[in-house]
Amino acid sequence: MSASETYNKLVPEPTPHSTPYWEGLNERKLLLQKCRSCGRIRHYPQPMCPVCHSMEVEWSEVSGRGAVHSWTVTHHPFHPGFCDDLPYTLATVDLAEGVRMNAQLRGARPEDLRIGLPVRVAFETVKEGLTLPYLVPDEAV
Amino acid sequence: MSMREKAAITGIGETVYSRESGRSVLSLQLEASLRAIEDAGLRPSDIDGVIPYGSAVVAEEFVTNFGIGDLRFSATTPLGGASCVAAVQCATAVIAAGVYNHVLIPVGRNGASQGRIGTRVQQMPQFRLVGEFEMPLGAIAPAQLYAPMARRHMELYGTTSRQLGEIAVSTRANAILNGNAIMTKPISIEDHQASRMISDPLRLLDCSLESDGACAIVVSGIERACGLRRTPVMVMGIAEGHPDSPSVITQRPDITRLGLAKAAARAFDMAGVTHDDIDVAEIYDCFTYIVLCQLEDLGFCKKGEGGPFVESGAIRLGGKLPVNTHGGLLSQAHMVGMNHITELVRQLRGEAGKAQVAGAEVGLVTGNGDMGDGSVAIMRRG
Question: A27, A92, B226, B295 — which has fewest CB within 10 A?
Fold first, then answer.
């Protein structure tokens, strides 16, 4: 899929708390929030650490490697922008850094999906200024 | 101060359920509300509290249309599909504090004919995180967001699509007995298995309806309730629970569990009853898996045993725990679970017609919404 002027999928609306995440994707990096006080990595971005309640945050590049926690294979066209992708797999993944992410998983047959399947993050620039993450099987593992 | 038996449901009302009402949501809600008020033997001006659903129809509309002279309380309980039972908890607490006598809780929508529910989620503030981080990647509709819960349950515990199908089939059989249900054609497990895949493992017949109509109840303080027209249905125990990662399922530490798991013990403790005392259960059924999950989270069976539990016939009429005797959101209509409350009231009054559970004295109703907020009420015939 290439960048297109007629991009018709839903687009994110970044907030002051999430802008570095999206900017990181544009640089093909997975940047996650890290609490400056207790060092805990968290995702999705939010202003406060739920453990120590510090609002001081830094952004840490993570490995992008993880294992499948669960998934769904979507067949129904819920949105016109995704009709051409059907069927597509959405995987919920436990990243090595201890947080979850959810993204499309490409390059794996539905019958091969299992809890624990190693995956890694890849990046796709879908339109000017918007790069999205997706997942692929991590063949190196 | 306990909320136990401080309030009762004294009136219920429903419109015809359809896929195209041809009317405004306001007029639907007014009709159902008026029926509930008349069912209780009250006049509209007797209502002194209103807990509307969301922001589509606000309390002021009921003041204006019913000529309520002194509305003493209004609130909303924004828990999606858990809102209706949570509203009963709110009503019960405020009644116990002596603020008002009779509270109206209306729900109504043109969910089929105006704006499909699945595509409205991104506009809702409680789904801001899903809207920013999941919807742009293609995880848009509730079926897609709930499906990974069911998939993980299947992988961990061996739960099967046919077991989910049993919930769809049993619920449909009950809808056929109801008289005000949208889906009235019998279905089999094979029909379920042949229904098209929506978002694996959820098939079309695992998903609830989108419907038009309205449904309302009146909750009254116990002293007032006993002098009214109908047998009161007493609120014995009631609670709400919010899951960890309340608005994002995929971020939840245990994605096979709902907020209800936190509320269930509180409600049973307050009610002072055990699971064996429950004669009938109306379980929020946005998806078949969510019924199975709640049966576990409520403690009717252990986590992971929901599949064999439903497969045994336990939830059928005549089974150990008849569930969704009206046809639920899967086959009667999607009234955000208010129709589950009205059905429980009918069962405990002994007015559930062909779906009546013989001798039903104590029952349970749940709500589930906004990706896992839960609510549960245990009630008895007064």
Answer: A27
Full pLDDT tens readout for chain B, 382 residues = 789 999 999 999 999 999 999 999 999 999 999 999 999 999 999 999 999 998 789 999 999 999 999 999 999 999 999 999 999 999 999 999 999 899 999 999 999 988 655 456 666 788 899 999 999 999 999 999 999 999 999 999 999 999 999 999 999 999 999 999 999 999 999 999 999 999 999 999 999 999 999 999 999 999 999 889 999 999 999 999 999 999 999 999 999 999 999 999 999 999 999 999 999 999 999 999 999 999 999 999 999 999 999 999 999 999 999 999 999 999 999 999 999 999 999 999 999 999 999 999 999 999 999 999 999 999 999 9
Per the domain annotation, does A101 fall within a domain? Answer: yes
Write out chain B in H/E/C secondary structure: CCCCCCEEEEEEEECCCECCCCCCHHHHHHHHHHHHHHHHCCCHHHCCEECCCCCCCCHHHHHHHHCCCCCCEECCCCCHHHHHHHHHHHHHHHHHCCCCCEEEEEEEEECCCCCCHHHCHHHCHHHHHHHHHCHHHCCCCHHHHHHHHHHHHHHHHCCCHHHHHHHHHHHHHHHHCCCCCCCCCCCCHHHHHHCCEEEECEEHHHECCCCEEEEEEEEEEHHHHCCCCCCCEEEEEEEEECCCCCCCHHHCCCCCCCCHHHHHHHHHHHHCCCHHHCCEEECCCCEHHHHHHHHHHHCCCCCCCHHHHHHCCCCCCCCCCCECCCCHHHHHCCCCCHHHHHHHHHHHHCCCHHHCCCCCCEEEEEEEECCCEEEEEEEEEC
Residues of A near B (Cβ–Cβ under 8 Å) read 9-15, 18, 43-44, 69-76, 78-79, 82, 85, 88, 90, 92, 100-104, 110, 114-115, 132-134
Nearest residue in A to B148, CA atom: A71
Residue B160 lies in a domain: no
Give the gap in angstroms from C-alpha B123 to the nearest C-alpha of chain A: 12
Written as one letter, the residue type at B376 is: V
Q: Is residue A10 part of a domain?
A: no
Residue A3 within any structural domain of the chain: no
Structurally, how many domains does chain A consist of? 2
In a domain, A36, yes or no: yes
Cβ–Cβ gap B197/A133 under 8 Å: no
Residue A78 and residue A50 share a domain: no
Alpha-carbon span B330 to B194, nearest angstrom: 17
Q: What is the pTM of this model?
A: 0.96
A75, A118: one domain: yes
Residue B171 in any domain: the answer is no
Report residue A86 as tokens: 């059907």
Total number of domains constituting chain B:
1
